[in-house]
Design goal:
By secondary structure, the chain is mainly α. It is 77% helix and 0% strand. The protein has helices spanning 2-13, 20-38, 41-56, 58-72, 74-88, 90-102, 108-133, 138-161.
């Protein structure tokens, strides 16, 4: 409940220093702390270390993604950026791509494909988390999560490569920015 209050207050205050990564890290910190109290402390610690590693590599990942976008082009690059962003936060990718689409910074179709790719990675990431926390549950959750990941990948590929005109915004301009500010 406190987390919900914190989130609503910060959204209403429009705090610019709280980007999407900060939100995800705050929620993850809360969730891992709760899990350490009521669940497996070792698993919570292992996930905290993995999350810290991802956060520490955030800036180098941004540079790699930006280079890949320049090298591979808009469609490939947005899919790659979505996949890389999905490792850390598919929510952040969704927010950023929605903002870019709303401000006409690129093709809404291609930006939506990036969101679909981030979602596919998120489903796979959920399988890894279930495996780490309770491997016996994996046989129950893997089939629907893998089906959802496959559907998201198909959606991303159709969105990125289905050739139809998006009008004057058909070109996607991209910079590796995974924050909501």
């Amino acid at each position: 409940m406190r987390t919900a209050v914190m989130v609503s207050r910060c959204f209403s205050a429009q705090l610019s220093w709280w980007d999407a990564t900060t939100w995800v890290a705050a929620m993850l910190t809360f969730a891992l702390g709760a899990y350490a109290l009521v669940g497996d402390m070792r698993a919570a610690a292992a996930l905290a270390v993995a999350a810290s590693l991802i956060l520490a590599l955030r800036e180098p990942l941004h540079g790699w993604v930006e280079m890949a976008v320049k090298y591979f082009g808009a469609s490939h690059g947005v899919l790659l950026a979505g996949a890389a962003g999905g490792l850390a936060s598919s929510t952040a990718v969704t927010i950023v791509n929605a903002q870019r689409a709303a401000s006409h910074e690129g093709s809404p179709r291609i930006l939506a494909a990036g969101v679909a790719m981030a979602s596919a990675v998120m489903f796979l990431r959920a399988c890894v988390i279930v495996l780490a926390l309770n491997a016996s549950l994996l046989e129950l959750v893997a089939p629907p999560l893998l089906a959802a990941a496959a559907a998201a990948v198909v959606s991303a590929l159709i969105g990125a490569y289905w050739r139809r005109s998006d009008g004057p915004n058909a070109q996607t301009f991209f910079c590796a920015r995974f924050s909501s500010t």
